[in-house]
Specification:
Layout (H helix, E strand, L loop, with lengths): L9 E5 L3 H7 L4 H22 L3 E8 L7 H25 L1 E6 L7 H13 L6 E9 L1 H15 L5 H7 L10 E4 L18 E4 L9 H12 L9 H6 L3 H4 L1
Parallel strand pairs: 1-2, 1-5, 2-4, 3-4, 5-6
Helix pairs in contact: 1-2, 2-3, 3-4, 5-6
């Protein structure tokens, strides 16, 4: 990484473009998703090597159930295979795995695989990897509010934040979306309030270490004010401003 810049503590990624990558190569869409898993593996390793503390990725949204049934079934099977293949390596690499999203609609096989992957890596501390699967930002806010209401607790910004599905990690510093689209698509709507947004034209299967470093360099070129003025930041730089 150029100039040995300190990386963002928490990077979030919308991994977009697998289907288009496959289509351009006259391959089935599932081939693009398989390639995307390989790129995610390399991205996890790259983030760990650069000292990133948390990586959160959007793997399957609550809206993705509307895709063709063949693709959805293939994605579920790909997830099951990826769990059995990748978890041992994540364990060796010191990666703590979390699956974030609604599990009620998933098969028993998939739910069991998610739980086993989390349990196996629970004590790792090098990097926290959050895989958002069957996740939506609106769902996250709704489930947090419902949780508080069921407990009879007042709904405030603080209590709602503590009930979110990603309450175990700080909010993302940098949110990257690949594939050339410039929208959040219901990803981390609460947590991304002050995230720096970075949009890459690269399709996810083409997103390599150099592209990651470009995103990190762009992050460092930004001034993060968190509601303050530039003069305040310059006169009393905070840890957040230097992040």
């Amino acid at each position: 990484m150029a100039q040995n810049l300190v990386p963002p503590h928490h990077i979030a990624i919308v991994m977009d473009g697998n289907g288009r990558w496959a289509k351009r190569r006259f391959l089935p869409r599932l081939a693009g998703h398989k390639q995307g898993v390989d790129v995610l593996r390399r991205c996890v390793q790259a983030c760990a090597q650069r000292g990133v503390g948390v990586l959160t990725v959007f793997a399957f949204s609550s809206e993705n159930w509307n895709r063709p049934q063949e693709e959805v079934s293939g994605l579920m099977e790909l997830l099951a295979k990826a769990l059995s293949r990748e978890v041992p390596q994540l364990l060796r690499d010191g990666v703590q795995l979390h699956f974030v999203g609604e599990r009620a609609g998933l098969s028993d096989k998939v739910r069991e695989g998610l739980a086993q992957g989390e349990a196996a890596t629970a004590h790792n501390t090098r990097l926290v990897l959050n895989v958002c699967f069957n996740y939506g930002g609106r769902w996250d806010m709704a489930q947090a509010a419902a949780k508080l209401a069921a407990r009879g607790e007042p709904i405030t910004e603080t209590s709602l934040n503590a009930a979110m599905a990603l309450a175990h990690v700080p909010d993302p510093d940098l949110l990257i979306r690949t594939g050339g689209e410039m929208r959040l698509s219901n990803f981390l709507l609460w947590q991304a309030a002050y995230s720096e947004l970075y949009f890459s034209d690269k399709l996810w299967p083409d997103f390599d270490d150099a592209a990651l470093d470009e995103a990190i360099a762009a992050f460092h070129a930004r001034e993060r004010r968190f509601g303050k003025t530039s003069e305040q930041i310059l006169s009393a730089p905070s840890a957040l401003a230097r992040a």
